[in-house]
Amino acid sequence: MDPATEPPRNETEVLRRASAILTERLPATWSLQTTTSGSGPDLLLTVTAPDGNAVTLVIEARTTVEGRDVTHVAAQLDAHAGSMSRAHGVLAARYLSPQVRRRLIENGISFVDTTGNLRLETASPGLFIADRGADGDPWRGPGRPRGTLKGAPAARVVRAITDFARDWSIRDLIQTAQVSTGSVYRVVDFLEREGLAERTGQGKVVIPRWDAVLRRWSEDYGFTRSGRVTRWIAPRGLDDLLARVAENSVETYAMSGTIAAAEWASYAPARAAMIHTADAGTAAARWGLRPADAGANVMLAEPDTDVPFLRSLTSTSRLRIAAPAQVTADLMTGPGRNPQEAEQLLDWMTANERSWRI
Question: What is the Rg, in whole angstroms, of the alpha carbon atoms belonging to the chain?
């Protein structure tokens, strides 16, 4: 589907385009028949395999879907599909953002949007189809931005949410994150829309999954995107560098990446050092680093804010280590095997919350 076409005007148009996409993506030897539902689900599609085995796709259409809608959509599809024999629920939408698609996949929900994003998986008959459409809403007009987790205020709120194990009042979150009232409300509203925060009747903000908030932050934050990063060579290797850092530390720095993660969950020997520092030039001179255009084994990041230094700790080897949540976000957005190391660290954090969350 060409995103340059006119946007679907209503759910009926969403269903028409979604059906066309499913028909186009089905294997040539499979067939699809459409039955308009009188009540209950919006549309029923019968998909038949070459051997005659068939499944009914129970389609629910939405013009707009946000992260907070996923739980309700899952319950609705389960209710409709559960009332039929050999049925499978599918969400059809005008557009589904990458964040919403990820949550749908986590909840085992098949989906299709009118830009071509598609994931359909049925057990009997065995069928798996996936395709990619737009990663940004091609029909979103001008107006107030939907919001992101970019910038220092959002970073401070995210770090507070992940570092502290509690439900929050807005006042407590303002005081802990040290940001303005408006910033806290904007971030909390955004997290609510994404389905990552809930508000109780008593006005508390509840975070069901801190790891999901951390993952969402990593989409807007990046070790190399959120400040000035320079690359260097430690001529005598990383072990010598760490000894120099321990003996000649600069005033403001925090180890991150593989070296820091090894404090909690060792994945593999470090190939490079990732270090936050307030002054890369001073740090490089004190630690005997040489500038490098190629072959660098040290990255020094001068962050835009002091967030990477918040709640850092000192290791047994006298190195200042960034907090686990910060290290995880840095690894998620780092090069090479760093994202896999982030998953290893996340597993440890999940299993050992009491040892690092305050």
Answer: 24
Question: Cα-flanking dihedrals φ and ψ of residue 303, to 5°?
Answer: -70, 155
Residues 42, 57 contacting (CB under 8 angstroms): no
State how far the Cα of 260 lies from the Cα of 323, in Å rounded to an integer. Answer: 9
Closest Cα partner for 153 from 197, 203, 109, 187? 187
How far is residue 211's CA from residue 349's CA, in Å, rounded to a whole number? Answer: 9
Distance, in Å, from the CA atom of 112 to the CA atom of 73, rounded to the nearest integer, reads 14
The Cα 145–Cα 147 span in angstroms is: 5
Q: Is the dihedral of CA 208, 211, 212, 213 positive or negative?
A: positive
How large is the greatest C-alpha to C-alpha distance in the chain, in angstroms? 75
User: What pTM did the predictor assign?
Assistant: 0.76
pLDDT in the model for residue 205: 96
Q: Whose structure tokens read 């806290």?
A: 184
Report whether pLDDT(35) > 90: no
Would you place residue 280 in the very low, low, confident or very high pLDDT band (cuts 50, 70, 90)? very high
